[in-house]
Design a protein that fits this description.
Blueprint: E1 2-6, H1 10-19, E2 24-28, H2 31-40, E3 42-46, E4 51-53, E5 56-59, E6 73-76, H3 83-90, E7 99-103, H4 109-117, E8 122-126, E9 129-135, E10 138-144, E11 148-152, H5 159-171, E12 175-177, H6 181-202, H7 206-211, H8 213-233, H9 241-252, H10 262-268, H11 279-289, H12 294-309
Parallel strand pairs: 1-2, 1-6, 2-5, 3-10, 6-7, 7-8, 11-12
Antiparallel strand pairs: 3-4, 8-11, 9-10
């Protein structure tokens, strides 16, 4: 399989490295990272072992890709606020039979991609492991909770989704085909909505949030609002918000108690976060639907204030 990964940060690099074992993989990423990969190979460390991958083509822009190149799968692994520009850049590479997959956090990425390349070419993907960049050319897998999921927007667990899931699994990234990937992306969004902003605001790992009654109360309120919005949109959810809250504390949180959220990492680096595509998306959709979301709105505003402050201490 010929695969292009647009957005070779931590997650994109992990996918690219492991997939390069059995596939032809091209990475698009930032200059220093790409330079290191081309000079020394891509190093992956952490809970999946230590590896150096050298069978990769790595570039800083789509324009550098050879004209004859074609791709079966284009994975977009950028931050959600870069999805629009990413899909515009890869559009010339989308041919007959090319699938474009959002392997991103947040709400609305698949719909945005589909508006450009068509719904039949669009796929969703969900990574349920954590990673971080240690330095240019080196990424670390920090935590693993469950198999990744991939799926088409229509047709259930399609043959294409099963083929891609099998390729990912064979490369060392456990993956299953989903019969409703948009539902699954919402389920992961609930996890991030409940944990990421509080982790960023309080500067604590996920586990601390489950220990304090105050943060548990806030998580309950944010989930209640988010589920009301999702239900109004007709998302086929697996749980009520109360059931999900219990599931979060008892099943999802324990394997990731030490995880430092990407949102906290972004705040500490003075970077923009994805709050607009998590809690902020609940607020925006709630306004369109006439649903009040005051807790999510307050939390989102605090995170945006932290973005503006950067890493300076007051």
């Amino acid at each position: 399989m010929n695969i292009l990964i647009f957005g070779a940060g931590a997650m994109g690099s992990v996918f690219g490295g492991f997939l390069s074992r059995d596939n032809s993989v091209t990475l698009i990423g930032r200059r220093e990272h790409i330079k290191a990969i081309n000079e020394r190979g891509l190093t992956i460390t952490g809970i999946w072992g230590e590896h150096i991958f050298t069978r990769l083509a790595a570039f800083t822009s789509v324009e550098q890709i050879p004209e004859h190149a074609s791709f079966d799968l284009i994975m977009i692994t950028t931050k959600s606020y870069d999805t629009a520009s990413a899909v515009k850049e890869v559009l010339p590479l989308v041919k007959e039979g090319t699938a474009v997959m959002s392997m991103q956090n947040g709400i609305g990425n698949e719909e945005l991609i589909a508006s450009v390349v068509g719904k039949q070419r669009t796929m969703g993907g969900m990574a349920i492991f954590g990673a971080r960049l240690l330095e240019p050319g080196c990424a670390e897998v920090t935590v693993y909770a469950s198999e990744c999921l991939v799926g088409d927007l229509e047709g259930g667990a399609t043959p294409r989704a099963k083929e891609i899931a099998s390729a990912f699994t064979h490369a060392g990234i456990p993956t299953k085909a989903s019969d409703d990937i948009i539902r699954e992306k919402w389920m992961k969004a609930f996890y991030n909505i409940a944990l990421n902003p509080l982790s960023a605001i309080l500067r604590v790992p996920y586990g601390k949030l489950g220990e304090m009654p105050e943060t548990r109360k806030l998580m309950r309120a944010m989930l209640r609002e988010a589920f009301e919005v999702a239900n109004a949109l007709g998302i086929h959810l697996k749980f009520t918000w109360e059931e999900y809250y219990t599931h979060l504390l008892e099943k999802l949180l324990p394997p990731t108690v030490s995880h430092i959220s990407s949102m906290l990492q972004d705040i500490e680096r003075g970077k923009r976060t994805e709050i607009d595509y998590l809690n902020g998306a609940i607020v925006s959709l709630g306004k369109k639907l006439g649903i009040a979301t005051p807790v999510n709105e307050t939390i989102a505003e605090i995170v945006k204030a932290l973005e503006q402050r950067g890493t300076k201490e007051i």
